[in-house]
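Justification of computing resources. Each target in the renewal requires a structure prediction run like the one illustrated here; the chain below, 160 residues long, is used simply to show the kind of job we budget for.
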Amino acid sequence: MTALLADSVQDIAVIDTALRLAVPRRAPLLLVAVLPAHAHSSVTAEADTHAARVVMGRVLPRVRQAGLDHIPVVHRVTPRGTRLRAAGAVLDVAARHLSSVLVAAARGPAGLDAHVLTEASALRCGPFVHTVAPTAWTPFTTFQHYTDLKGRPTASGPAS
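Resulting structure tokens:
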């Protein structure tokens, strides 16, 4: 089981779905942190490690709470290449770890959304790609702003 983490709001939905699929099987979870391409090749391994820790730090508490083994992997997207090549590189990482299912967000960076991964997987006979729908944004309930008929904010609640 592989979870594709792309340093986005969708990572929590991706990890929750991956855990829902992996926990009944007690399957170890491959966590692939995808880092964006850099125009300069002077990016150090230390910078990659720091960026990956930030991405992994959001999801590791959930993985540990589920009690699953996990393998963290960092994958940097190459600056030049097609979206299918980028997706193929992620599928190669999953194949190296013998993962049969890849969980990815429907919207992702650098062409690494679930739709492109599904297309690349079909071309390569790769793992099954499970798509996680985008989570809906909901405003905080404590901050309700009311407007009048012309769209101007009002200080009090709605007129009754």
